[in-house]
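Researcher: Please generate the 3D structure of the following complex. Treat every line as part of one assembly.
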Amino acid sequence: MPTAMKQTLIPFLMLLAAAPLLAQKKGDVDFEKQILPILQKQCVECHKEAYVDENGRRRRPKGKVMLDTLANIQKSKRGKLFVAKKPDDSLVMESILLPADDEDRMPPQKKGPPLPKADIELIRKWIEQGANYGKWTGEEKSDKKDDKSKGKDKKESDAKKKAPSKKKGPSPLVTLRKGLQPVAAATLAQFVDSPFTVASVGDENPLLAVTCAGNTDEVDDAALRALLAVKEHVTDLDLSRSQIGDGACEVIAQMPRLTHLDLRQTAVSDTGVAKLAACEELRSLNLFATKVGDYAMNGLARLPNLENLYVWQTDVSAKAVVRLREQRPGLRVVFSADLPEKGEDVAAGNRRRR
Amino acid sequence: MSLRKLIRGADLDTRRTFLSRIARTSLGVGAAATFGPRAVAQALLQDPQGTQGQEPIVLGPATAKQVIYCFMNGGMSHIDTLDPKPGKVTQGPVEAISTRADGVQLGQYLPKLAQQMDKACIISSMTSNQGAHEQAQYLMRTGYELRGTIQHPSLGAWCHRMAGRRNATLPGHVIVGGGSDAPGGGFFPPEFSPLPIGSAKDGLQNAALPRGVTESRFQRRLDMLKQLDQQFADKHKQASVDSYSQAYADAVRLMRSSDLQAFDIDQEPQSMHDAYGDSDFGQGCMLARRLVEHGVRYVEVMSGGWDTHADNFDRLETLTPAIDQGLAALLADLDARGLLESTLVVFASEFGRTPDIDQDQGRNHYPKAFSTLLAGGGVVGGQRYGRTDKEGREVVTTPTTIQDLNATIAHACGLPLDHVLTSPSGRPFKVADKGMAVTEIFG
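Model: Done. Output below.
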């Protein structure tokens, strides 16, 4: 058929096809009802505000483009995502119109097919009509479900509140040293022939890191009491593989500035770990291969700053882990090892010479 | 511990000497940070062989307490592994696969590593001007260019010396699967030479008493040796003599320690052997994990055969699965044990390989653009830092030199980048020379 007819006929047919979608206002595209669903389905999964996923990893908006709220759309790419009345200047139009084999086409080839022509035309039309968002701002809405998260929707807004403290904010090495006088040299000297290595966390910070690696046979609950001399200063404590038990937790509970505690491969159990609720500054707690179980998880849920918890090879049940993750969405609980399956024949790579 | 009883029983002079020796070997120069007053710190640093009068080292905050450095010897092809260019001629027959990290792809021979990409960061913008193996490897290990005039210490030796040991009984620096020819301690005192372990399966050799020698007989022999040595030591008062005796003392202490089992991978269940794979590299990674569990500061795992001038793709198909298996298991295993947050894992090679494929189906040396992978120890995972162009020929953003890489590792360990240590010949050196740490990849 003649080109002119084709040019009017096809858009007309598309409009007909899109008729059920058309808003009540005559001909004007309604952002919230027509454009927003496209963005939410095809774009927002990758192009939204930075967040922390269930594994504790930070996810950033792809290409620094955000399409989840009005403020974010206007912030991205200096407001050039949608330029009112100018679809050819709008970066989103440019991306969705690229040929299928162009690696910058949106959605990306590996994520799915290109947008249906009807959707592309709808967006173009909306931009031509002035890119009017109506009353939509996108704030206060709960995010679309990620493929990875299951049933966490109602907790996502909590997660967002917790995530910023992970992103920015002063380090505890800065905040916790305030008002703290360095430990006297004589006090530190007493640790020279003790089973503990005691050192500043760095930059001559009065906060201390302690380990007993190499002398684990000698460190038991009684020996730990030597650390009471520096209890106000210890922020990082490594007692892994030592002979301590629940009694040691009474000493540890007296360390208000403790942020990192490594108790892996020791005999601590629920009784001891329950006492650790006093260490409110704890960020990381390693209980790998200890005797801890579900009961201790309740107390740990109350630690306000805990970010990482390791409970592989313990008596903690999957159920308790799920419950803990629901109570504390900002907390990363490592419960099992994500080891690769046995390979077929990896011994072939046994050459050492070039 | 009988050593402590020895200290308490000895007179003041012996105590003081013993203290300084222990500090030097077990705490390393990091002892400076343990004791506030500089007078005490200086005393512990005294070394007549030329480090006299040096400033005490002030360590920075460390996110990495330990390092596992996996080195692919020969120049691993980066386009076929860490920086694929799908759809371009330079990609060759190897496909690109998606990973658990959004927007990051790997070569198809790394599917298991792909599952762990959320833990790792790839620096795709490595660039260097060293295209020959020996020179490039030397630069990577030491941060300095190969010269005829001096042996520079390796990065592991710097880490051992500046940060000291976490576990005084075990060595501070171990190399698995190679290492007797690599730059080790360089001009540092002998106690900072790394311990080479030829094969993870064989573990630490000669660490048990020979048959027929009981513990008491062994002790008598040691006493006799000490008597003989004492005359020599009295006559020649030098630090190197002390170091030599100290090396023996360290070895004996290790032999008697329960931490010796760290070297024995037979203690791992079969499921672990399966997860890491039965290759030298895989078993080496498993040993590295054990050593790090026991507090060894710096462990290197070597893998060879990557110089694929011919049959690049066939050889990669054979070589890479072992690396894929071992590295993926290492990351998952460390994380599950709560060790990844404090252990920096490095996966590197001395240069990349040409984007253009030659007539032998090979790729040749290409230092202009290549990739390194870092994970743990404060590095934010699931990201790619720096980019090469569409075909993988040039670095287009944030060029990162080998010295920058070393500086980044040093920064993670809290080693001061501007601290100068002089060689016995009086020349000044720093841990990464002029390198600048890539701080953006840390959380």
